[in-house]
Design goal:
Length: about 300
């Protein structure tokens, strides 16, 4: 599971202060030094760490905390609050358009898990929200992406709209919208192409699909195993497309996970879902509060 290293380090640090009847500024300082190291070691972006530490410090050395009856616990509460905030605060749900269909564009680098997540999300929407999504195979560049989505569709007994790989993704999206309206689908999930790196041509194409389909949700799919590059990638996608949320995939893996957490902070968009495995039911709504509590023990 992701964040295990971070959890262990933070819990170790916080345990030292937990039961203290008296906490001095020096104690807080020492604790913050260790929290800072734990976050950096977990690969949280350094700018994000800096801000996090500043926020905690400002609140933790306040008089109410140091003079309270249980200062150790108060300090831990501050860390917990700030960690929850870092991960997005309140849980953020998937958009629902006032006039269906709700259009969701899945974007991200190749291999991040877009196609898999498209299937998982379709399954989630049907199972938990009683919706009838149409999946759209608009990744014509990655060999096998279309087939992969079609296979997922068959497995789930859910429709996939595809036009092969000889038609432009923009054209596919356009036709898919017509089909969705005709067949009264309430969600359209567009699986777009990814590349190994952010490139101009891809961004232009995604912008075109966006202009045409007017999506209610642009979900950036981020592989939690990728390091700091995830932060740059997220910034690029956000600048060009204005993403509305993040899906962290592969959180079931043995990853430090900190870079992925930083994505929320740098794009200021919520993490909406977490991918917890390869299977179609391995998608969970992301709960910042629960995740923070789990990390802090
Ligand atoms: P795409 O290129 O972005 O469409 O990526 P894919 O959907 O093809 O996913 C790439 C690989 O990651 C596949 O082998 C998936 O099975 C795997 N994958 C996707 N999401 C998860 C996840 O949450 N956990 C694990 N363990 N593997 C995942």
């Amino acid at each position: 599971m992701a964040f295990e290293g971070l959890a262990e380090r933070l819990q170790g640090t916080l345990n030292k202060i937990r039961g203290k009847g008296k906490v001095s500024e020096a104690d807080v300082k020492e604790m913050m030094r260790e929290v800072r190291l734990a976050l950096l070691e977990a690969d949280v972006n350094f700018k994000v760490v800096k801000q996090f530490i500043a926020n905690v410090k400002e609140r933790a050395v306040g008089q109410e905390v140091l003079k309270s009856l249980t200062p150790g616990q108060q300090v831990i509460k501050v860390v917990n609050d700030e960690l929850t905030k870092l991960m997005g605060g309140q849980q953020s749900k998937i958009a629902v358009a006032s006039k269906p269909p709700t259009v969701v564009m899945m974007v991200g680098l190749q291999g991040a898990g877009k196609t898999t997540t498209t299937g998982k999300l379709a399954n989630h929407l049907r199972k938990k929200h009683n919706r009838q999504p149409l999946m759209v195979a608009a990744d014509i560049y990655r060999p096998a992406a279309i087939k992969q989505l079609e296979t997922l569709g068959k497995q789930l007994s859910m429709p996939v709209f595809s036009m092969g790989d000889q038609v432009s993704p923009v054209e596919i999206a356009k036709n898919a919208m017509v089909e969705a309206k005709q067949n009264h689908h309430d969600y359209v999930l567009i699986d777009t192409a990814g590349r190994l790196h952010v490139d101009e041509e891809l961004m232009n194409e995604l912008e075109e699909i966006k202009a045409l389909t007017n999506p209610d949700e642009i979900l950036l799919v981020v592989d939690a195993m990728t390091g700091q590059d995830a932060v740059n990638v997220a910034e690029s996608f956000n600048e060009r497309l204005g993403i509305t949320g993040v899906v962290l995939t592969k959180l079931d893996g043995d990853t430090r996970g900190g870079a992925a957490l930083s994505v929320k902070a740098v794009t200021d968009t919520p993490i909406k879902f977490a991918g917890m495995g390869e299977k179609v039911d391995a998608l969970e709504p992301f709960h910042p509060e629960r995740m923070a509590s789990r990390i802090l023990g």
